[in-house]
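Narrative progress, year one. The postdoctoral researcher (J.K.) led the effort to move from monomer predictions toward full complexes, under supervision of the PI. The following entry was the first complex the group processed end to end, covering 544 residues in total.
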Amino acid sequence: MSSAVTTIAPPKELHLRADMTIATRNRWAMADLADGMHLWRLAWALGWLDIRLRYRGSMLGPFWLTISTGVMVAALGVLYSTLFKIELKEYLPFLALSQVLWGFLAALVSEACGVFTDAEGVIRSVRMPFFVFSMRGLIRNAIVLGHNIVVIVVVFAIFRMWPHPGSLMALPGLLLWAIDALALTLLLGGFCARFRDIQPIVNSIMQIAFFMTPVIWKPNQLSASGIANLAFNPFYDLLEIVRGPILGSDIAVTTWIGACVYSVALCAISWAFFVRARGRIAFWV
Amino acid sequence: MTSRALIEVKNLSVLFPLYHGSSRSLKKMVVAAASGRLAQDQQQRVVVRALTDINVHLESGDRLGLVGSNGAGKTTLLRVLAGIYEPVLGSLRVRGSLNALLDPNLGMNMELTGRENILLRGLYNGLPRSALPRLEEDVAEFAELSDFLDLPVRIYSAGMVVRLGFALATAIKPQILLMDEWFLAGDAVFMEKARMRLEEMVRGADILVLSSHQNEIVRQWCSRVLWLDQGKVLADGPADEVLNRYTGSIPHHPADALV
């Protein structure tokens, strides 16, 4: 009988030692990233799959996200514009944008904790770059963001706020978000696999951050009350570099500097952790 | 084949720290650190020696069988060879394309159709897009799913799921084949066909490492046998010689005949 199997596995070479130097570990971590990026189509497919499975059998599918975000924004908008005594026309576009962007950030941070533990079965049965699971987490949340953008578009259209060229300045901010997201998933994914009680801590930090960051309230309300210092909230800087350009408000240079400093710090910590922990993650999940 | 396949394991040990319950918690570590006992705690961490001081050298043409009782470290060794568990002590060198048949349902998703599962597996293996149609054709043909191929795996019969899983696992031809014994499941008619396909694959591989409780299979396919016991190598040599010693050592309980 002739062989039906003609698909040949891609060749590879593996040389692992227990007593690897930092330089060697660093090389393996870089190889993980490179191999992971090479498998971007897998990460893409898995990201979509996560969304499909989450909404399987439902007629509207992921558009339920759009609807629930829309209802949430409408309800909060009416309530808080009254409480804060801000005109709806001024407040609602701000809220829609903030809420959607924050939803993306918060889900990303929270889900970063599970990127490796959720893929336990795969990690324990095949050698696979861990970066694939990081990309999967980012892609999954980017898809959710994509659905929620509809809410922003609708609100902006209702209040006749049309896009202006300055909005494009949000793109570098989004790029920075993507880099941060990947760094964070590598860090939290590994850390939460090792210490299972990090996840609840992260969730409560995000809960507090939601109230401490100008998401539903405006930064100028705080300065009006005489408190001007938002400088040490990384979420504020990161949120503002994307939100500001879209709303057409000026971004202080310090905000950009802050966002970059926090991002560099995050990437550095995350890399140092990943270089050290990469070989151990399979034991932890 | 580009280069000759090679597996070289030197003084390899794998220890599993037990992360159960409270020993895993951050609280305990913080408390221990605060009271200055962290180092001690690390030392006293309960570890399981899954593999101790393993040395194996395999080259093209070698067919290694792993025998030993449950928990002897057979599957762990396969996972180490596959690069999943990295050595805690010692080193590992593997050259050549590798396929590890460890989990029959690797990445298989019940909600996806058979066809989508095939494509997903192709992606898992990092196959180029051009290789996917061939893979799909091959798996579909072997698994005999015909019309079911475009229906979700969820509605398949148990036999069909086994066929698909098997066809997927054996669809990609490696230089080094690592195999756990799960594949010997399935209905009788399928078994004969599966056996042929598997033998085909085994013959095609440069190096085979097979872990099994079924000594006859090991005797048939392997030229060399490594007998593991509690993570240590008890014997390593020609298949018949080691298997005879191994079977001689097992007390003949009826329960053993079942596994």
